[in-house]
Amino acid sequence: MKIFNSLQFKISMVIVVPFIIMLIISNLFNIFSVNNVTKKLSYKVLEESAKGEAAKVESLVQEAFDSLNTFEYTINNLYQSGERNREVYKNTTKNFFETLPEGTGALFLIFKPNVMGNDVDYINDPNYSEAGGMFSDYVYRNNGTSADRGMTSEELKSDYYSVPVTTGNINITSIYDFEVGGKMVKMNTWSIPLKNKGEIIGVAGVDIFIESLAPIMDNINPFENTLTSLFDHNGTLLYNKENESYIGKNVYEAYPYYRDNNVLESIKAGQTVIFEDFSTSLNTKSAYIFVPIKLETGQNWGMKILVPNYVILEDSNNIRNIMIIILAVILVIVFIITPLIIKKKVVFIIKLLAQDLTKLSKGDISWDTPPGFTELKDEWGDIARAIKSILDNLNNVMNTVKESSEQVESAANEVLSGNNDLSNRTEMQASSLEETASTMNEMASNVKFAVSDIYDSTNMVVEAKDYVGKAGRIIEESVNKMDAVYEASSKIMDITKMIESIAFQTNILALNASVEAARAGEQGRGFAVVASEVRNLAQNTQESVKNITSLIVDSNDKINLAAASVNESKDIFNDIADRMDKVSDLMQKVNIAAKEQENGIGQINIAINEMDSSVQQNAALVEEASSSSQLLLNEAKNLNKLIDFFKLR
To answer: Which one of 2, 449, 574, 626 has the fewest CB atoms closer than 10 angstroms to its CB?
Structure first.
């Protein structure tokens, strides 16, 4: 099942399936069109073949009429020459009959009453007695020879005599049964009027054996398995290869479904009829074509040619089969070639792209696009160039971010170390101030309770002077440290601003990377997650830096206040130092100045307490700065860890 889930199979199906559907539809349309065209062409060929065969039959029928016309012409010449000898006419009829084909069963000649002028002389003649002496001669075949006789009164009442005499038109009778040589045969009679100077003087005619049409019709075989039929102007079947028992029946009686196609009416109108139907004789769907055969009488016989569809459509079926074979070959070629082309031109490249994007999802951006792909002029070239640009930009950005984060980490380490040192010194300063405060309290107590003891006071003054000098130095040192803290805080602010700028640029680059990853679709999802994490870290770093900056600004404000207080204390201590220098000179006035000294010591006490409070505040600020520095250091380390996820060039 793996092959069905492969990209090669899916892309091949996307291309091959619509192509196959269009190819099949096109071929079906072509096959249908070719079938229609070849069917029409085959039907046209069938129609022309049928018309050609009908023309042959018509020619043979016309030969029979020509023979009859020749006989009529010969008789008219005899009559017009004044010949009235009946034996001459009988011999002429017999001799002419012997020239006719075997299919002609009889030749007869009849003159109307008294046309010969001697009918009364033959009233008792056995050959003419039944006709009242009028001339009639019927020459027929009898066991391979010809014989003749006169015609009966009943025969003279038949259509083949009465119709030409009364209408002056050629007449062809319907089929009838007649005994010849002791057996019944089917025949019809063709007769034409004899005219002299426009007046009808008699009738000449022939009897045609219907079975004589069989050899002619049997030779009509334009296609394999062709069945033919022949019927006269009344629709009576003269020949029927399908079923000979239908001969003599009307076509509508034998084949009722012919009526649905108006076969007989169309033939009488001289029109060709073509239709398709299932043939029980051929046991298959077949083409029926009926063509008229024009007779000299102005009437039309009809000839049917029945051909199986599989015969007339054989070429069409062969073309269809060839087209199906070609289609199958094309389908096989498409199924084989298309996946190979897709594999070489698409899947192979996508596989390389997937491998490279997998590296990218794992943070490896040290690779480069495969050689030659960036020179391609198609979409693959565009993708390769875009990926190369992404890799170059990512490497540049990540290298820059890495360098910046390392600098931030180093600076944070320095700030943290400085803050820790400042914290320790601030604690020492606070301890010293506590000692100074305690000493000053003790000194105040001694001044208050030992004014009388000058020596002790002098010693205390000396001691106080020492402590004041020491406190002055501590205060001066505190001022210097505060200045250093302020300068370090300013540097921290510069560093945090640089970190904030880097975090902002990192955020923008991460956003751009997310957009490019989204454009890459499914393959860029892993990189999109990494880019999103980098962006979140950059935003957190930026927020933390803003908080640190705010804290440092607040710390600087407080340090400035503490510095002012310490400077003030320094001035006070300097003043105390000056005063203590004069104490030795003013010991004599100690009693007078004791009160003032007590007040001065009280002020010093207040100043030291205030200094102690400021130092405690400084210690708290230094602690906060240390905590912020530690947070900044941790964030910088986390950023470095995230950056270390990427394998750079």
So the answer is: 2
Helix locations, 362-453, DSSP H: 379-449
Burial of 558 (0-12, 13-18, 19+ CB in 10 A): middle
Kind of pairing, strands 145-149 and 273-279?
A: unpaired
User: Percent helix, strand and coil across the chain, each rounded to 5?
Assistant: 70, 15, 15
DSSP state letters, 590-630: HHHHHHHHHHHHHHHHHHHHHHHHHHHHHHHHHHHHHHHHH
The reported pLDDT for the residue numbered 7 is 65
Low-confidence ranges of the chain (pLDDT < 70): 1-5, 7-8, 315-316, 345, 447, 450-451, 454-455, 457, 461, 468, 471, 479, 566, 573, 584, 587, 590-591, 649
- The first and second tokens of residue 381, run together, are 């070239």
Name the residue among 306, 351, 325 with its Cα closest to residue 523.
Answer: 351
The Cα-based distances of 567 to 143, 425, 555 in angstroms read 170, 18, 18
Closest CA to 546 of 504, 500, 501: 500
Residue type, 36: N
Rg (CA), the chain: 68
pLDDT of res. 118: 86
The answer to whether 233 and 299 have CB atoms below 8 angstroms apart is yes
Spatial separation of the C-alpha atoms in residues 45 and 313, rounded to whole Å: 11
Question: CB within 8 A of 373, min separation 6: which ones?
Answer: 349, 380, 381, 384
Whether 637 contacts 441, CB under 8 Å: no
pTM higher than 0.70 = no
Token pair for 77: 């010449």
How far is Cα 345 from Cα 351, in angstroms, rounded to an integer? 11
Q: What is the pLDDT of residue 3?
A: 66
Q: How far is the C-alpha of 457 from the C-alpha of 590, rounded, in Å? A: 9
Do the bridges between strand 176-180 and strand 145-149 make them parallel or antiparallel, or are there none, so unpaired?
A: unpaired
Lookup: tokens for 311: 């015969």
Question: Are β-strands 183-196 and 171-172 bridged in parallel, bridged antiparallel, or unpaired?
Answer: antiparallel
Give the position of tokens 């289609």. 327
Structure tokens at 93: 């009829």
Backbone angles phi, psi at 136, to 5 degrees: -155, 135
- According to the model, what pLDDT value does residue 434 have? 75
Beta-carbon contacts of 297 under 8 Å, excluding residues fewer than 6 positions away, are 169, 170, 171, 172, 233
Task: Report which residue type is found at 69.
Answer: N
Cα separation, 621 vs 626, in Å, equals 8
**Token pair belonging to 59:** 């020619």
Q: In angstroms, how far apart are the furthest CA atoms of the chain?
A: 221
User: What is the distance between the alpha carbons of residues 147 and 140, in angstroms, rounded to a whole number?
Assistant: 5
Phi, psi of 614 (to 5 degrees): -65, -40
Closest CA to 617 of 559, 556, 567, 533: 559
Q: Is 37 helix (H, G, I), strand (E, B) or coil?
A: helix
Contact in structure between 151 and 179 (CB atoms under 8 Å): no
pLDDT at 618: 76
**Contacts for 229 with CB less than 8 Å, ≥ 6 apart:** 237, 239, 240, 241, 242, 251, 303, 304, 306
| DSSP letter string, 216-242 | HHHT--SSTT-EEEEE-TT-BEEEESS
Classify burial at 637, counting beta carbons within 10 Å of its beta carbon; exposed 0-12, middle 13-18, buried 19 or more.
middle
As a whole number of angstroms, the distance between CA 427 and CA 612 comes to: 11
